[in-house]
Each structure stands twice: as C-alpha cells, then as structure tokens.
Automatic annotation (TrEMBL):
It comes from the Bacteria. This is Phosphate starvation-inducible protein PhoH. It comes from endosymbiont of Escarpia spicata. GO terms for molecular function: ATP binding. Keywords: ATP-binding, Nucleotide-binding. Residues 8-149 form the PIN domain. Belongs to the PhoH family. In the N-terminal section; belongs to the PINc/VapC protein family. One of its GO terms (cellular component) is cytosol.
Length: 468
C-alpha cells in the first residue's frame, strides 16, 4: 500500500454496501479496505427479495468482476477499481485500489469492548491498520451511528457514508413557491405583457428575477395588487406566468372540498393540471396532502375520465412492532397500511342518499381504485393511471426511480410525504428518495412541487403539533 499521507484508507462497514453497492467506486483516488467479517455478513444477507438482499448480490457481482483474472499474489497488491464498467462507462476517475483482509490484524481492543461481535471485529481491524500504517489516515465509514460513536471513543476517525446525500441541509430543499417582492409591479410594469387565452390569464415577465425561477414554480404577491400564478415557461430572462384557479371559493370545489390556504390552492392546481406528469407534496401531518390528492384523482378519474383508475401504494415500514404476515390477496394485505387513504375516502364519499347511496358510492370507488404493494412494481407498466405514492420519504432513491420508471403514456404520479418523519433505517432527510426526486425534477417543466405549511386537520391536532 502507498504510504503517502494524502492518500486515505477507507474501511467500509457492511451496511454501506447494503445501502449502495456502487460505494466501492465513490472514493476516487483513495484506497478501500474490506475486513473479512464484512464479506461474511454480506454472505448472510444475500438471500431474499428485499432491496437489501438485491444490493448485497450486486455487491458480490462487482467484487467477482473485479477479481476476474486476478491470482492470489496480486490480491495483496490491491485490485484496481477503474477496470470495471459502471453504467456502461469505465470508472476512469477512480484511481484507488481495493484491499481485502488476507491476514489476521493484530490489535488489542480495550476491556470496555468485550465479545467477538462483527462491529468489534471491524473496530479491531481499523485499529490494527492504524498501527500498521502510521502515516496513512485510516477512516471507518459506516451508516451505524453507534459504531461511529464507539470508533470515536477508541480514537478511530469515523464518518457516515454521504455520497448519496442530495443536499447538505434539508432546509435548502426546493419549496416550490416564492413570494414576489412588494415592489414587483413597480419594477416590471413596462416589461409585462398580459393576455388571455381560452379563459386563462397569462403574463410575460422579463428581467433578472425570471432567470431565477423554476418551471412550474408557484409565485404569489400579497396585497391589493396581489397575484397567485405558476411559471409555465422560461426562456432566458423571459418567463410566462399563468394565474391559477381559486379553489378556496365555495362555488369552486374539487369533489366536494375546497382549499383552505394558498399552498393547498397551488397543490390542487398542479394535481388537476394534465400537463404535469409528476407532482410531489411535502408537509407535516394534517396539512391535507392525502385529501387533496384523492379529491383531484377522483374528479379526473370519475368525472373527467382522464385516467382509467387510481392506484394507491406506499412503503410497508411499520412504526412500532411488526404484526407479522397478513392473510389474503395483495390488496387485502395492503389494506392495513392504507388507513390514512381510507380515512380520507370516507370524507370524500359522504353522500346524502343515506346508507344505500353510501354503499353505491363505495362500490363505484372500489371498481376504480386499486391498492398495490411496491414489492411487485418491477417490470410493470401503468397506462393512463393516477398513481398515489404515500409515505414516499421512506423510499431510497433507487426505489423511487424503480417506481417512477413504471409510468407509461397518460399516467400521473403523485408522491406524498414528510421528510421529517422517516422510519427506514439508514435513511435521513438528505438521503431520502423523496428529497432526491424533488431536487432532480425541479427543472423539468412537466413536474410540480409544493410544500404545505399549515395544518388544517383540527384545532386539537394543530395545538398538539405545536406544543407536544
């Protein structure tokens, strides 16, 4: 191994490769070391159809390809990582090497860490490498917070794997709306061109402000000359803004409901826009994400016939103890996970026809609403469907890509979630698939995003959210 001080040696924990198999190629000019216990843990995790098992098998395939044609004497010199094609391209920028543990590492763990656990073996390996290579910076990379804490106690530098981090801070995430300055009209009166087309009002705005806007971004100006609009097109310093419909008025309802605030009104406009194929709604509990999405879906499916049916799905991550296997068909197994959707359906199907009218409405909805599990999405193509993905913050970027790429012609996908409420191990606000999708789609003109800020569930729920 090179003893150069600026060339670091990263010791990878098993959960890093379980989380992202391509982590092997993310350290550029630095070397990677895999303890033998990591290979043992990978072998134990290869069985099954879960996302983790698939990642483990992909890691094993990468390692097998790297070792192709390598004899035993070359392994000690390290395997060059730039020999493998990744996504059809050689990893030319990766100049580091991959080292395996081929001999026992002599290191004495303190008595405060008793037992021969995999984590302690990895710590012992890192300590042994530090002693064997004093001029090399040895860094343990792990998604396990407790392992990183133990490493810090022992004087081993430890870091989280952050290559899949979309943003440095979730507060930098695109919010989907922007308040225009109070003197907006004073600066743009001479540059604004206004016209109407098919009952819609449009403005063409020129200037440096327009250069900073994103397609489908929601803009608003408060006061007597206030407006609420969506950026329809942007060309250099020019932008075309379309005024949105006001669904807060009692005469302008969507399947019997109205928007209660500005963000909800923007959300309904995007949900009902056939030009937007992908919509993301972020917000805390009680902001109306599910209710608005269902109302817009029912209106476009049953009244306007834009979509053939509504498909509901979500990641099956339990908050408490897992209740075990559930009997029945795929739809029956998913029903307990869809409680939030079912609660909102009850609100939307309140009819004046008594029990008979309510039963007829529920039968109609059952024929046009399907509940599917994310586990069976691979290989499918959905045509003219309105897909609702609830609790999307619990998906990895890879799972999010798998779902979105199932969309066929005429399909709209709506992702709902709260990035502050992630239940999946090793996912954070900045690495969630929902954060990933919001950031990657913000420049695409056929997508829309809005962050809902105000809770509208009840005064009790609002007080509890703010004070508990």
């Amino acid at each position: 191994m090179s003893e150069e001080e600026n060339n670091r040696l990263f010791v990878l924990d098993t959960n890093v490769l379980m989380h992202d198999p391509t982590a092997l190629f993310r350290f550029k000019e630095h070397d990677i070391f895999l303890p033998m216990v990591v290979l043992e843990e990978l072998d134990k995790g290869k069985k099954g159809m879960s996302e983790v098992a698939r990642n483990v098998r992909q890691t094993s395939r990468f390692l097998d390809e790297l070792m192709c044609g390598i004899d035993g004497s070359e392994i000690n010199l390290g395997l060059p990582l730039n020999t493998l094609q990744l996504n059809g391209n050689h990893a030319d920028s990766v100049t580091g090497r991959l080292f395996f543990q081929t001999t026992p590492v002599i290191s004495h763990l303190p008595d405060s860490l008793p037992g021969n656990t995999p984590d302690n073996n990895i710590l012992a390996t890192a300590m042994g490498l530090q002693e064997a290579h004093p001029h090399k910076l040895v860094i343990l990379v792990s998604k396990d917070i407790n392992l990183r804490i133990k490493a810090a106690v022992l004087g081993i530098r430890a870091e989280d794997y952050s290559n899949d981090q979309v943003l440095d801070d979730v507060n930098l995430l695109y919010r989907g709306e922007e308040k225009l300055p109070d003197d907006f009209w004073d600066h743009h009166t001479k540059e604004v061109e206004a016209w109407q087309e098919e009952g819609r009002t449009f403005y063409r705005v020129s200037g440096p402000d327009a250069r900073e806007w994103y397609p489908s971004q929601c803009l608003y100006l408060e006061g007597d000359h206030g407006i609420e609009g969506i950026v329809r097109r942007r060309e250099g310093d020019d932008a075309i803004i379309e005024l949105v419909d006001d669904f807060r008025h009692q005469k302008h309802t969507v399947w019997g409901i109205n928007a209660r605030n500005r963000e909800q009104n923007f959300a309904l406009n995007m949900l009902l826009d056939p030009e937007l194929d992908f919509v993301t709604l972020l917000g805390t509990a009680g902001t109306g994400k599910t209710l608005l999405t269902l109302a817009a879906g029912l209106m476009q499916t049953l009244d306007q016939n834009l979509y053939r049916e509504i498909i509901m799905t979500r990641g099956t991550v339990p908050v408490g103890e897992d209740i075990g296997f559930l009997p029945g068909t795929e739809e029956e197994k998913m029903t307990p996970w869809m409680g939030a959707l079912m609660d909102n359906l009850e609100v939307l199907t309140q009819t004046e026809g008594g029990e008979w009218g309510r039963a007829a409405t529920e039968d109609l909805l059952r024929s046009r609403i399907r509940i599917h599990s994310l586990n069976f999405m691979r290989g499918r193509t959905f045509l003219n469907k309105y897909i609702i993905l609830d609790e999307a913050q619990n998906l990895t970027p890879k799972q999010m890509k798998t779902l979105i790429t199932r969309a066929g012609p005429g399909t709209k996908i709506v992702c709902l979630g709260n990035v502050a409420q992630i239940d999946t191990p090793y996912l954070t606000e900045t690495t969630s698939g929902l954060t990933y999708a919001v950031d990657r789609f913000k420049n695409w003109p056929h997508s829309g995003h809005i962050t809902l800020l105000r809770g509208e569930r009840s005064r009790l729920a609002d007080f509890a959210s703010n004070n508990l």
